[in-house]
Design brief:
Residues 174-289 form the GFO/IDH/MocA-like oxidoreductase domain. The chain is an alpha/beta fold and 372 residues long. 35% of the residues lie in helices and 22% in strands. The protein has two domains: 38-163, 3-Layer(aba) Sandwich (Rossmann fold), CATH 3.40.50; 165-316 and 343-368, Dihydrodipicolinate Reductase, domain 2 (2-Layer Sandwich), CATH 3.30.360.10. The strands form two sheets. It has a nine-stranded mixed β-sheet. Strands 3-2-1-4-5-6 form a six-stranded parallel β-sheet, sandwiched between helices. A hairpin with a 5-residue loop joins strand 9 and strand 10. Helix 2 (16-23) runs antiparallel to helix 7 and helix 6 (141-154) runs antiparallel to helix 11. The radius of gyration is 21 Å and the shape is globular. 48% of the residues are buried. It binds nicotinamide-adenine-dinucleotide (NAD). Nicotinamide-adenine-dinucleotide binds next to helix 3.
Length: 372
């Protein structure tokens, strides 16, 4: 393992493209800064909202937390008090639509079980609000299309919470893969999984829309797309689920898939609800760049192999977290009048491939994907 100085030298000597990308702001040239911090209403006060997202507003330049939506009065009371949200800005699912009358809410952030994403995104747009929606965007292509259409009709932006697009090591990996230093990319391996706890909505198909693929395998899929910058043209998948395990009566456990990209790159992807994985590797003709963990909340570790020598790469400390960068990006996109980097179209592309992966596993054959 190399020390920080050596790692940095490796980065600077060999991977200039990567450093440039790292220095790039969240938006490319032409981005306007919002005149004020835009207000977010968080819908669904579960683990991700309360433990990961809400504490991040403190690090935001363009976003602030202004409202809460929950079906549990005790949570509204507790988090309302903790974050200084007045009673007038606390909503439940019945009076949710009255957010239209609250000028302190610019953006609604949907952090609910997957099958509720479409309904609350569409209701938020109809109430005249921009929307940030968690991944997976919804549970079907049809729902994704309805969400895009509702936001477009309302003249509002729609962004999907793909936080890795704002995480410095992932951005660096993209730049390195593109730099040519490893030769043309040949193979990507991407593995994501965890051991799912029983008795939760993720294991109930009506709420989750599917198993590991919808929840965690989507990180393998999305990574192959951002690491190649290409859209896959063919998919082949295989599922393995122990239906005697009480966790897997309605959703899949493991579903691995291969993707073929137009340039000839192949991707081998793991998606699991019964084993822990968080890694990817992009291998070219001259070496590879790999990360483990790759898409975690923090603590990314990157290695590169060039001409047989393996180095660990440590990037300069970035004070802004991926969460704060994601929260700030939507206000910037709104002020700039551009599509967010992870727009509804991005979520829809993943969902089209997810549907094809399920079809491939069910029909035991390769599925051709058409560019859309
Ligand atoms: P969670 O179970 O902790 O929270 C879900 C919330 O929805 C709870 O507050 C629950 O009360 C509420 N809810 C409302 N109606 C419900 C119903 N009918 N059944 C169950 N819950 C209901 O889940 P979570 O881990 O916070 O996940 C929420 C969303 O965030 C999911 O779409 C998930 O994919 C996404 N997520 C994203 C990341 C990420 O890193 N981007 C991480 C975790 C979760």
């Amino acid at each position: 393992m190399t020390d920080y100085k050596t790692s940095r030298r490796v980065v600077m000597a060999g991977f200039g493209t990567g450093l440039t990308a790292l220095a790039m702001p969240a938006l490319a040239s032409g981005d306007a800064q919002p005149a004020r911090k835009l207000g977010y209403a968080i819908v669904g006060l579960g683990y991700y909202a309360t433990q990961q997202i809400m504490p991040q507003f403190v690090g935001c330049e363009h976003a602030r937390l202004t409202a809460l939506v929950s079906g549990t009065p005790e949570k509204l009371e507790r988090y309302g008090a903790q974050y200084g949200i007045p009673k007038t800005h606390r909503y439940n699912y019945s009076n949710f639509d009255s957010i239209r009358d609250n000028p302190d809410i610019d953006i609604v952030y949907v952090v609910l079980p997957n099958s509720m994403h479409a309904e609350y995104t569409i209701r938020a747009a109809q109430a005249g609000k921009h929307v940030m929606c968690e991944k997976p965007m919804a549970v079907s292509v049809a729902e994704c299309e309805a969400m895009i259409s509702a936001c477009s009709k309302a003249g509002k932006k729609l962004m999907i919470g793909y936080r890795c697009h704002f995480e410095p090591y992932n951005l660096h990996a993209i730049a390195l893969a593109k730099s040519g230093d490893f030769g043309p990319t040949r193979i990507i391996t991407a593995e994501h999984g965890f051991n799912a706890k029983p008795d939760q909505w993720r294991l109930e198909r009506p709420l989750s829309g599917g198993g590991s693929l919808m929840d965690i395998g989507i990180y393998s899929l999305n990574a192959t797309r951002y690491l190649t910058g290409e859209e896959p043209v063919e998919v082949m998948a295989m599922e393995s689920t122990d239906r005697s395990d009480p966790r897997f009566t309605s959703v899949e456990d493991r579903i691995d898939f291969m993707l073929r990209f137009p340039s000839g790159i192949l991707a081998n992807c793991v998606s699991s609800y019964s084993s822990n994985h968080n890694a990817y590797r992009v291998t070219g003709t001259k070496g590879w760049v790999g990360m483990e963990p790759a898409t975690s909340y923090s603590g990314q570790r990157m290695s590169v192999n060039l001409q047989g020598e393996i180095h660990q790469v440590t990037l300069p400390f970035s004070p802004k977290t991926q969460f704060a960068a994601q929260l700030d990006h939507l206000p910037q996109a709104i002020a700039s009048g551009i599509e967010p980097r992870t727009s509804g179209a991005e979520g829809l592309r993943d969902m089209r491939i997810i549907e094809a992966i399920y079809r491939s596993a069910a029909e035991r054959r390769a599925i051709t994907l058409t560019a859309k």
